[in-house]
Design a protein that fits this description.
The protein is mostly helical and 348 residues long. The chain has a two-stranded antiparallel sheet. α2 packs antiparallel against α12. It is globular, with a radius of gyration of 26 Å. It is found in: Membrane. This is Probable G-protein coupled receptor 21. Belongs to the G-protein coupled receptor 1 family.
Length: 348
């Protein structure tokens, strides 16, 4: 990266957002607040998603639930991995060398976000098969095939970013480590390799499948409504327009995919510009990276607002938690009332 990112060597901690440094506390306040805030949201949100999937059996009837849960576990690990830069910014002693920690953190987060990106592409393929081949869908998409597909996603993601230890920065870094910002450069050939092997195929698959899904749904809706109007006119009753049954669920998945690419697009653009030595800025590096990582929390919000079955599962989980919290209080109240009765009996 350019020399503009070289930190001050005068004893001050290395802060990407220099405006956030305070002499009294001696650490990068704004960076710590942003990263810890995202870490708490990501971990808590994805734990809720995982528990809701276990509490709502209806959610597991969709084959896409395999990929949604895979994304939830990957996003949860992203939140846990955010502990590394948080502890670094708070000046906790690191056993390993800073260069190794930086490379491992960049590799792990890259792999986890690659899993999410590949899972979104697989979800779109799954919905495309469900709509284009509904009669043979259950024979084509089976649980063991889905598990193999998820295993391939994890292995592929690990292999794609493995050259980052020798070829250069893989992205998704944030440059919170001084060595990351000053010494770990992006390589244009490795960037092209990542685009060809991950970004471009995933984006093409998502665009192709969802375009055809909505086109087919619109065509089916039109045919169903025409038939309904034809038969209702014969019976003398007015027919109501009926939407494609798969379109609503496809819209939920499409929103998740759209938000993913909207949040990641600024960083992908910055990553391409940085690797080609066109533009480099430490503030842009930090903000675009952590904006992209915030997507790990957005999936929880979209699901909770869009999926009625998920909302029922969330209510069931919250009801179970409230009931478990209420039991000790009820037991305590009953024991208190019993002790009062016994004390009253002794005074008589």
């Amino acid at each position: 990266m350019n020399s503009s990112l070289v930190g001050n060597q005068s004893g001050r901690p290395f802060c990407l957002l220099a405006i956030s440094y305070l002499e009294t506390i001696n650490f990068c306040l704004l960076e710590v607040v942003i990263i810890v805030f995202l870490m708490v949201l990501i971990i808590s949100g994805n734990i809720i998603v995982i528990f809701v999937f276990h509490c709502a059996p209806l959610l597991n009837h969709h084959t896409t639930s395999y990929f949604i849960q895979t994304m939830a576990y990957a996003d949860l690990l992203v939140g846990v991995s955010c502990l590394v830069p948080s502890l670094s910014l708070l000046h906790y002693p690191i056993v390993l060398s800073e260069s190794l920690v930086c490379q491992i953190f960049g590799y792990v987060v890259s792999v986890l976000k690659s899993v999410s990106m590949a899972s979104l592409a697989c979800i779109s393929i799954d919905r495309y098969i469900a709509i284009t081949k509904p009669l043979t869908y259950n024979t084509l998409v089976t649980p063991w095939r889905l598990r193999i597909c998820i295993l391939i996603i994890w292995l592929y993601s690990c292999l794609v970013f493995l050259p980052s230890f020798r070829w250069g920065k893989p992205g998704y870094h944030g440059d919170v480590f001084r060595w990351c910002a000053n010494s770990w450069n992006t390589d244009p050939y490795f960037t092209l390799f990542i685009v060809v092997m991950l970004y471009a195929p995933a984006a093409f698959i998502v665009c192709f499948t969802y375009f055809n899904i909505f086109r087919i749904c619109q065509q089916h809706t039109k045919e169903i409504n025409e038939r309904r109007v034809r038969f209702s006119s014969q019976d003398g009753e007015a027919g109501e327009a009926q939407p494609c049954p798969d379109k609503r669920y496809a819209m939920v998945l499409f929103r998740i995919t759209s938000v993913f690419y909207i949040l990641w697009l600024p960083y992908i653009i910055y990553f391409l510009l940085e690797s080609s030595n066109v533009y480099s800025n430490r503030v842009a590096s930090f903000l675009t990276t952590w904006l992209a990582i915030s997507n790990s929390f957005c999936n929880c919000v979209i699901y909770s607002l869009s999926n009625s079955v998920f909302q029922k599962g969330l209510k069931r989980l919250s009801g179970a938690i409230c009931a478990s919290c209420a039991r000790p209080r009820v037991a305590k109240d009953s024991s208190t009332s019993r002790s009062k009765r016994s004390s009253n009996g002794c005074h008589i």
